[in-house]
Amino acid sequence: xxxxxxxxxxxxxxxxxxxxxxxxxxxxxxxxxxxxxxxxxxxxxxxxxxxxxxxxxxxxxxxxxxxxxxxxxxxxxxxxxxxxxxxxxxxxxxxxxxxxxxxxxxxxxxxxxxxxxxxxxxxxxxxxxxxxxxxxxxxxxxxxxxxxxxxxxxxxxxxxxxxxxxxxxxxxxxxxxxxxxxxxxxxxxxxxxxxxxxxxxxxxxxxxxxxxxxxxxxxxxxxxxxxxxxxxxxxxxxxxxxxxxxxxxxxxxxxxxxxxxxxxxxxxxxxxxxxxxxxxxxxxxxxxxxxxxxxxxxxxxxxxxxxxxxxxxxxxxxxxxxxxxxxxxxxxxxxxxxxxxxxxxxxxxxxxxxxxxxxxxxxxxxxxxxxxxxxxxxxxxxxxxxxxxxxxxxxxxxxxxxxxxxxxxxxxxxxxxxxxxx
Length: 422
Known about the structure:
The protein is an alpha+beta fold. The protein has helices at 4-10, 27-38, 69-78, 82-88, 123-132, 186-191, 218-226, 278-291, 294-302, 343-361, 366-395; strands spanning 19-23, 42-47, 64-67, 90-92, 94-101, 106-113, 118-122, 139-141, 143-150, 157-163, 169-174, 176-179, 198-210, 233-239, 242-249, 253-261, 273-274, 307-313, 321-322, 326-328.
């Protein structure tokens, strides 16, 4: 079956299509490729990781994420069959905040939203879905971004990248450079060298347990007894100065996150994920046994290869585009804490709005198109990042909560959809 992307490519006019060079092949980069191709642009993605080979459900990369209704609708426009999005995800119709007594290990509901209507996806599943729906050979796997330069007349931008296996330098020329290279963006650093991320004061232990073939085990039966709406509900369990997140993913997987207040860890390389030692894992499990129910403790204990993320966000950026040739999207544009389930959703809307602006103003009005993108998105992402920060601090006991309803995701600005109109 011909995808929407391939059909759009065939419909290009005889004139040379505008070309975007996208740095970063994660969800933000793939989203931008879909959106820009839909707007009539050509796109090349540079990604340092090798091409994926494993089946998505067996991939160790990433963890769970939540898609809001706006993102679900946008994804449906990009993918050839709208039902595929539903088939790849699991419903999160309900959001539940519960208070956990670490002494008795009992939970008490404090807020409930029966109209939450998100959907849960594993990062690798969504990445595979977006990847497969793109035209072939669009992604340069195993190519590491090195540098870029804008031509003297401002008509083009050239990106240098290094082939990881051979160390060969490759040059790619385009009309626009899209920085989708994450919260530690090297492209952003070029324009904002003094920009610093803000450490939240806590890290997140994360893991995904695949319970295929173990549906009737004591562990899974115990989890389902304690979390009876698992498979349709996003659970937040709040203990003293900490909280835990739990929800089910498609293909018999449970995603869990545990946020722990601690000093800022020492990061190595261009990643906010730290390598977990056996000692650190054992210490985490000891503390888990003190705070959470036996079911959660055993869930964490039985999960292979849990990982630790340092949680960062940043002050709002002054601009999202530079020199009419470079634009920031996703976590490069607005590093955020995960408490509002914003990162992926903001990336998808970034891509959609960027493409609409470029389509409206054309290559001759590229600068105006980027200004319009910034006008539409800058204020929105600022409010959402700050709300996610506040929510995380409240749930970690670092800020006081006013009314209990403040704990709900529904209080996120633009919860029902961010502006996309030009």
